[in-house]
Design goal:
Layout (H helix, E strand, L loop, with lengths): L1 H26 L2 H26 L4 H24 L5 H25 L9 H29 L2 H21 L13 H14 L3 H15 L1 H4 L1 H8 L4 H23 L7 H21 L3 H28 L6 H29 L2 H21 L2 H4 L2
Helix pairs in contact: 1-2, 1-5, 1-6, 2-4, 2-14, 3-4, 3-6, 4-14, 5-6, 5-11, 5-13, 7-14, 8-13, 8-14, 8-15, 10-11, 11-13, 12-13, 12-15, 14-15
């Protein structure tokens, strides 16, 4: 499963790089770039709760297979549009929405499937290792994508992404999950309410959901608008953008290794909040920096801190939920976690158009610091986890 997902993630990051650069070339608009990310992520916000219910009622492997097939078709469709030279920004927006819709069902199924493949004492390490494959792909994918983009063109980035989905489909066909959800007579709304009630009644869990939304809302624009920073601030090209993405991915791998190598002890939420405060400082510094070498280091460090925060928070949620509730609870968490991405990208895109990318980066960093300090000082229930 790890190797299949890693191969697919490499293809995905090749497409993310080429698609972001393509949108910026076609539109010359940071708002259009932010809108593309918004349309790719908003289905996750809107439909993940339904995806979580399906993940607790049907075979998680089958749901994932269907999700991967839809994303494969979308990648090949974009490749065909590029090959025929008729691609327009609105084509990309529509395909981004379709991919997001598939992920809104595949995401909860994947989050619920992975913990059933390991013992409970290995859960934090498994989540961190899963983060490693995703973020290793963030290094390899943009590197290969940048090479393919410069030497071969966007068409091959999209085509190779489509081919990469075959690896995860093959791995899904090969595994035999131990836990298969039982059928239930509950209505969809009752099942959704059960997941929400679990998070609301468990001490500190509601705060963790709020924190997930706030953290992604304010920190994810750093990744979304890297092409804008590369082109407008450092006067670079696709290679500069590729460098930033690779460094961010390498930092994330480092952060995930640190989490995977650490023992599962108490005080995980406090560690996450301290890492989040440090992340805010780094994002602010990145917004203020005008030296490429310094900014490159800051991108690496931000990737590491982002992964530490996200991996610790996800493992906290997974530790306190049973297999029968896992799909619904993780779907609620993913709505918050993934929901912050489209809104953060859209809002920052609008503000960047009126001010500048560095100013918004620095402002987001200050808000990340404030959010972390609030939960450290005021939100005591969360810091006890």
């Amino acid at each position: 499963m790890w190797f299949g997902a890693c191969t697919s993630s490499i293809g995905t990051w090749m497409q993310i790089l080429a698609q972001s650069w393509l949108v910026l070339q076609l539109s010359n608009s940071s708002f259009y770039l932010g809108l593309d990310v918004f349309l790719g992520q908003i289905p996750v916000f809107l439909f993940s709760l339904f995806g979580g219910v399906f993940a607790d009622r049907h075979s998680r492997r089958d749901i994932l297979l269907a999700s991967q097939v839809v994303q494969l078709v979308c990648a090949f469709t974009l490749a065909a549009l590029m090959y025929t030279h008729i691609v327009q920004v609105w084509h990309i927006w529509c395909l981004s929405f379709m991919v997001g819709l598939a992920q809104s069902f595949g995401g909860p199924a994947y989050s619920a499937l992975i913990p059933t493949l390991v013992n409970k004492e290995d859960l934090q390490n498994a989540i961190a290792l899963n983060s490693i494959q995703f973020n290793l792909a963030r290094v390899v994918g943009p590197a290969l994508g940048g090479l393919a983009l410069v030497k071969l063109g966007s068409f091959w980035c999209f085509t190779l992404n489509g081919i990469s989905y075959l690896a995860v489909i093959a791995s899904l066909l090969a595994i035999r999950p131990v836990f298969v959800p039982a059928r239930t007579q509950e209505s969809v709304l009752q099942s959704m309410r059960g997941g929400i009630d679990f998070l609301r009644k468990r001490e500190g869990m509601a705060s963790l959901v709020v924190l997930a939304f706030g953290a992604t809302l304010l920190s994810y624009p750093l990744i979304t608008f890297l092409p804008v920073m590369a082109r407008d601030v450092f006067h670079g090209n696709a290679n500069t953008f590729t460098l930033f993405l690779c460094l961010s991915g390498a930092g994330s791998v480092t952060g995930a290794l640190l989490v995977a190598g650490s023992a599962s002890k108490g005080g995980q939420a406090r560690k996450s909040l301290l890492a989040m405060a440090a992340l805010g400082i780094v994002i602010t510094a990145f917004g203020l920096s005008r030296v490429l070498a310094i900014s490159s280091v800051l991108v690496f460090v931000s990737g590491s801190l982002l992964m530490i925060v996200f991996a610790l928070n996800t493992s906290l949620v997974q530790l306190y939920v049973s297999d029968t509730m896992r799909g619904r609870v993780m779907s609620v968490y993913n709505v918050a976690f993934r929901g912050g991405m489209p809104f953060g990208s859209l809002i920052s895109g609008v503000l960047i158009k009126q001010t500048s990318a560095p100013a918004i980066m620095a402002g987001n960093g200050v808000l990340v610091i404030a959010l972390a300090l609030y939960f450290l000082v005021v939100g005591k229930k969360l810091s006890k986890l």
